[in-house]
Amino acid sequence: MVADPGSAAGPADGGGTEAEAKRAGVDPAEKVVPPRSSPDDVLRVEHISKRFGPVTALRDVNLHLKKGEVLGLLGDNGAGKSTLIKILSGFQKPDGGQMFLHGKPYAPKSVDDARAQGIETVYQDLALIDELSVYHNLFLRRERLLKPFPLLANRQMKKEARTALDEIGINIPRIDVAVARLSGGQRQAIAVARTVNGDADIILLDEPLAAMGAKEGAQILDLVARLKEEGKVSIIMILHNYVHVLQACDRVSMIQDGAIAYDKPTAETSVEELTDIVVNEYRRAREETHEEAEAAKAQQAG
């Protein structure tokens, strides 16, 4: 049941008490979660900012990820979620702030550099080549060769691909077919399997359930659950469905206005609380827009 939009203001709208804001992990003055750390952190981000010309995408992002943890990253469209993922993956460079990987400074020069350091990313477009087979996509840019000859070791790749898919519970009967013939859930699973097969320590999933049906989405959530149970990799997932967040994630962070404004274990929050925060944020934004329009009218009249 979704909370009544007219109920008391949540911790992120500035209308609650300071104690309520602190309980929600929000700085009541700044609406910015301050830098935090844990002894078992594998990734830590402090005061990250990013601008695109006059537009501020990220203004002060503080985030940490523990070993074996699944972190859900929430936020409205344009809040800066994908920008943050691109910075973590080495696709873009931040304008300010610092990052730490396994306690050491982390400043990837490229996606390949981030991958070499153990961070793999599954983007919304999956980065699969439709015309290639399942096993060729699993070894994309990591092809096995028949040394000393520059020929593909297809038999070896087929065997390793089948083993890799079976180990993480992905059921794809034929791995020699083009991925264009597979369902959305199977294609997403292959993209995730490729990151796991690459010995990643951290996996970044940019909206892995986007445009998927219930059955396909369940396949991905099951895969994430298996990876979480194994505890070998840490995962950051951009999600929009709060039920999925509470089901799949250990902790949730919400980006608002280019900063992490909410951070809480999923066991301590609810769909109603998350909905309240977003509704209150929409209300605040609507009021600000109305006030700006009234000020503009008054200025024109004067």
List its traits.
Rossmann fold, elongated, 302 residues
| Coarse structural class | alpha/beta
**The number of domains:** 1
Assembly form of the protein = single chain
By DSSP (H or I, 4+ residues per run), the number of helices equals 9
CA-based shape = elongated
Distance between the termini: 48 Å
* Highest CATH level, the class: Alpha Beta
Query: What is the residue-mean pLDDT, rounded to a whole number?
Result: 84
Q: What is the CATH architecture descriptor?
A: 3-Layer(aba) Sandwich
Characterize the largest beta sheet: strand count, sense, and whether it forms a barrel.
6 strands, mixed
Uncertain ranges: 1-29
Q: Taking strands numbered 1, 2, ... along the chain, how are they ordered across the largest sheet?
A: 6-7-8-3-9-10
Strand content: 15-25%
* Element string (H = helix, E = strand): HEEEHEEHEHHHEHEHEEH
Rg, Å, rounded: 21 Å
Number of strands: 10
Write down the CATH topology. Rossmann fold
The CATH superfamily is known as P-loop containing nucleotide triphosphate hydrolases
Instruction: State the share of residues found in helices, binned by percent.
Output: 25-40%
